[in-house]
Design a protein that fits this description.
The protein is of the alpha/beta class and 341 residues long. 39% of the residues lie in helices and 20% in strands. Strands 1, 2, 3, 4, 5, 6, 11, 12 and 13 form a 9-stranded mixed sheet that branches. Strands 7-8 form a two-stranded antiparallel sheet. It has a two-stranded antiparallel sheet with strand order 9-10. A hairpin with a 5-residue loop joins β7 and β8. The chain is globular and about 55 Å long. The termini are far apart.
């Protein structure tokens, strides 16, 4: 059994593999086995791997399972103590694995962690998709140490301390294999987006901790699969976020939060149409809410299991405030400016 398996899920990402896989191999070979799981790519990814990166262990999936189920399919074929789910557009650095490995080895109560995520294009700025560890507000809006909505902070060392978070980025998710399997892994029905938040929230509900270890740092391109301004991305984000809330919120909060999200989601849709003149995203929000209403019943059993497994009644990393109010009304654009409640 491997100690640590780094698993890169690839779909038509030959360009990213050619550019960033060498750093992963160079700085990980002494501490991990590197796998590439290919989601039935139609480009030259597989031939590239076989010819130029024979040291990688290749897993060939029979079709494009998406991000979430693609990882489930791949990880079911790997025996390891730890998994590290790594995007193909990540550039790693010397000594990036050691801090996370050492921390996880001596903290069995921690199920998952992440490194500090910085931008490939500006090494002094955080990267959108995870920054220095993630949280949720009362209504399910995700934010990070280093990123709130579209505002990304400069990295001045202000978050250079290990701390508990609610979710670790799916771009570089270090997770204990035993705990991953215990909660059923990523929810493959999500396809992509919010799946790592959903996974970490389920782990947190069971009493496990999630941390960010900024002593480890990596650099992320971001938006490698779908660009930010993409109706499909908007659809998946809204649909999956609502589904995650339905699964994970306690009974005492569910009705209020879902009622508020009805108003907030449609307000967001009209803002996209009127202020941004984005008909695609406007329609995507409506489609997402319709899709959630249609498949909500399919998650009733999941909700029952999750709620019956609840060990932590109140999770401090799910903040009690409204992020929209903090950001747009109070003008708090940095994590350090937010209320601690």
């Amino acid at each position: 059994m491997d100690k640590l398996a780094i698993v890169i899920l690839n779909w038509n990402g030959a360009k990213m593999l050619r550019q960033y896989l060498p750093s992963v191999l160079q700085y990980s070979r002494d501490e991990a086995v590197v796998y590439v799981a290919d989601n039935a790519s139609t480009d030259d990814s597989v031939s590239l791997l076989k010819e130029h990166f024979p040291e990688c262990r290749l897993i060939l999936l029979d079709r494009n399972w998406g991000f979430a189920e693609g990882y489930n399919q791949a990880l079911s074929q790997i025996e390891a103590e730890y998994f590290l789910l790594l995007n193909s557009d990540i550039e790693v650095t010397h000594h990036w694995l050691t801090p996370m490995l050492e921390y996880m080895d001596v903290h069995p109560e921690v199920a998952a962690c992440q490194p500090k995520l910085l931008s490939v294009f500006d090494h002094d700025s955080f990267e959108y998709a995870g920054a220095c560890g993630g949280y949720l507000d009362r209504y399910g809006y995700p934010f990070c140490r280093g990123r709130i909505f579209e505002t990304v902070e400069r990295d001045n060392g202000q978050y250079d301390y290990t701390t508990s978070v609610l979710w670790a980025t799916g771009a570089a998710l270090f997770v204990r294999a035993r705990d991953y399997k215990e909660v059923g892994g990523l929810d493959g029905r999500f396809f992509a987006h919010n799946e790592e938040i959903d996974l970490c929230w389920r782990l947190r509900i069971r009493g496990y901790k999630i941390v960010c270890i900024p002593e480890s740092r990596v650099y992320h391109v971001g938006g490698g699969t779908l660009p930010k301004a993409n109706p499909m991305k908007t659809f998946l984000n809204f649909r999956n976020n609502l589904t995650m809330l339905y699964k994970c919120l306690p009974d005492s909060e569910l009705r209020h939060v879902m009622r508020m999200r009805w108003w907030l989601d449609y307000l967001a849709a009209w803002e996209m149409l009127i202020l941004k003149r984005n008909m695609g995203d406007f329609k995507a929000v409506y489609r997402a809410r319709k899709a959630f209403a249609k498949w909500k019943k399919d998650f009733a059993a999941d909700r029952e299991v999750i709620q019956s497994s609840r060990v932590v009644k109140e999770i401090p990393e799910q903040r009690r405030f409204s992020l929209l109010w903090q950001y747009y009304v109070k003008g708090h654009k940095a994590f350090s400016e937010l209320s601690s409640q």
